[in-house]
Every structure is written in structure tokens, then in C-alpha cells.
Task: structure prediction
Amino acid sequence: MQVRVIPLLLAGLAACAPNDRLEGSVTPLLDLRYERVEAQQSEDGKEVAVRFLRMQGEAEDMVLKVTANLEGYALEPRLPIDLAQRVGNDEGPQRGSVSRSMLDEPTRDFPELARGGLTFHGYLSPGERVSGELHITFTNGTHVYSGRTLFGRFEATVP
Result:
């Protein structure tokens, strides 16, 4: 009986822990495995970014970067940032954007977001770690990533 309890307990703990890859329907098209995550707010407080990183020799690949414009928004723990929201007015840019920069790949463009959220479970204090989660659905269209999704939980270092 004890032998069975330990594997079940470990499986349960693993299910709650952040993964080393992002998930979603984009994964058949892109390798979204990462080694570490950084979260940072700009010095002027107007932008926040989460970078999913992987080493490639001496260089660093940015597997994915999710950026949020914080104009008119107060960054608070557990308060989701609506990445698809327009900033300023209905014609303004979206609050969130997604990018990718890999050493041996062309720069990837992503379509606009139909839905998206980025949540930090704590404050972005330099030198600390913060957990969080994100979910993104790209708009429908003719782009290769149209209608596809990205999601995951993370544990980030704040430089």
C-alpha cells in the first residue's frame, strides 16, 4: 500500500508544478520547451514582459516573449492582464503581443490575439521569483498560427 501512495503523491505534485514547456495547438508547429523564465517590468512601469529562454551553446534563444502594455492598468498579484484588450480606444494597439527570437530560425510573427491573459501570483521584485500563468488564443485568419492557442504556468526570476 505504501509503495502505491508515494508514486501517486509524486504524480500529484508534478501536476501542480510549472512545466518546462508551453502547451497549446501551436506546439505541433514550434518547439516551446524552455530552460528558464524571466519576468520584468520596464523602469517606467509602462510595460511588463515574460521571456521563456533556452541556451544554445553560448547564445540564448528566446523561445517566446509575451509583452503587455500597462497603460491605464495597475499591475497587482493575481489580477489577470487582458492581453487582447485595446489600449486607448477601439482603434488602439492591443495590450499584449507575442514574439519569438531563435538563433537558427527566422523571426516569427504572430497574429493578433482573440483572447489572452497573463497573471502574476506575486509582485515583480528584483532578485525574487514569481509564479504565474498565461493563456492566448490567436485570431482566426490565414496566418499559420491563426486560431491556435498557447498556455502554461511558469516560475520566473525577476532580474
User: Anything to note?
Assistant: Strands lie at 36-41, 47-56, 59-69, 81-82, 96-101, 113-120, 129-138, 149-157.
